[in-house]
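Researcher: Please predict.
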Amino acid sequence: MRGGLDIWLVGRIAVALLLLLPLGAVAYLALSPPLSLAPSDDIWGHLWRTILPHQILTTLQIMLGVAFMTASIGTITAWLVSFCAFPTRRFFAWGLLLPLAIPTYLAAYSYSDLLDSASLGAKLWRIIGLEPSLYPNIYSLGGGIFILSAVLFPYVYISARAAFVHQSAGLLEAARLAGLSPFACFWRVGLAQARPAIIAGVALTLMECLNDIGAMEHLGIQTLTIGIYDTWVVRGSLIGAAQMALALLIFIGALLYFERLQRGSKSDTQYYAPIGGQKHEIARFILSPYKSIAAIFTCFIPLALGFLIPFAHLIYLANHHLQNTSALTPNFIKAAEHSVLLAGGAGVIVCAIGLFLAFGNRLVAHIRHHSLNHKIANLFTQIAALGYAIPATILGLGILITLAQIGAYIDWASSMSLVLIGSGAGLLFAYVVRFLPLAFHNLEAGFTRIALSQDMAARSLGVGRLQMLRKIHIPHLRAPLMVAALLVFVDVMKELPATLILRPFNFDTLASLAYTQASLGQLEAAALPACMIIIVGLVPILILLSQLDIRANK
């Protein structure tokens, strides 16, 4: 029995170390560059004197702007659909999730075409006689903040909506009996209780900002992530890119620490938790006709800007392209096949690893005092499950560094590294590291719904761990496994930064094909793979609807 437990313990630590290897490689190369390099090869000082201050300042400005916009839009819309009664409220309750289906780079492609100086909108602007200098410039810092906020605000909306739905009915009803207005109830009661959830949603949004390459590059905005990519690809300095990546990793660690700090202590968390376990329905604020119209517009504008307008425009461009070509090109068909194969393979591997790690945690869940070894294993597991917070650019860079370092010290590994990159295995590994948290957290939550008494009963009957997992746990985990596989599948279909760095030569996915064609100015050709990505991206929206319990408190 103890030997079996040790096997699972060693396995969890080994898997976690393997997943952490790319980050370790980035830190190693950044802090200890090879001695064979000339001083001129280390360009950190040059970067710091020239472009780094501007890129850091731009990144901070983007993050501050997006944080403010997404927090405002997501929180206000979540409050309206949760506690106010107005026509179309139920439609907006799920419709406000739709912008999640549009990756940021596809929104940038659409709006850059819609708001171009030669577009119909610009012509109408001039015909009306409006001041040309006031015409929106999408290729600007404000344009980048607008696009990122338009498609990322649902992250805050989901968190705030879930917090509002599960808030204490007693506090809100007491506030109403005290004569507080709807705005006062929102500001003094609802917002205070939902603050940790809102901060968590904003933190996730900022992680997506730091991961973005396609949108910012298309708009010509120089962020720190773009700087890492350019330093390696354009300037040819792997060490400089690693040093910049390490600085970004430290920044992300500080962001995660701040988010945890804002959640507060245990007692603080209890303050924000529902009081008295009250779950009865809350009477919504009945809005006047004018206020109802205002609420409808408040919810419709983010939905239109984040989903309806860019999606409709991309459909128009794709339809126009198909009318001209009258057939799907071989490049599109191959890219679709590559995307499906990579997404399917990543989904299977990620779910298998997530199940392994979650089951390892389950094995010691019933032990009151975990041993030091198990605490270390749990720590490594939780760290490995933070991959989604790490920009794909850094993960791709770390994998390249890992393969290069191994090949430099072992002769046969040099050719093996080329095989791994050329076959797409390195790209698949990046997907696994980045999207493992989606499967791990879903399966870990699924395990919590299985009574520990079933495990103890199985053990008392002499059932082995693998047999217990196969016969008891997996049948209960079919739904979480399916959800995790679908989420990973869709996210891999949309993933761009890691794909650009690690894809083999002459190998395209739908995301990289859309990026390449948009970079060449062929937006009509890029619209077809873009629409395919968006249609597939609608799948997790349906999953989120079921998980969020969006129909609670009807």
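Model: The domain at 51-310 is CATH 1.10.3720.10 (MetI-like fold).
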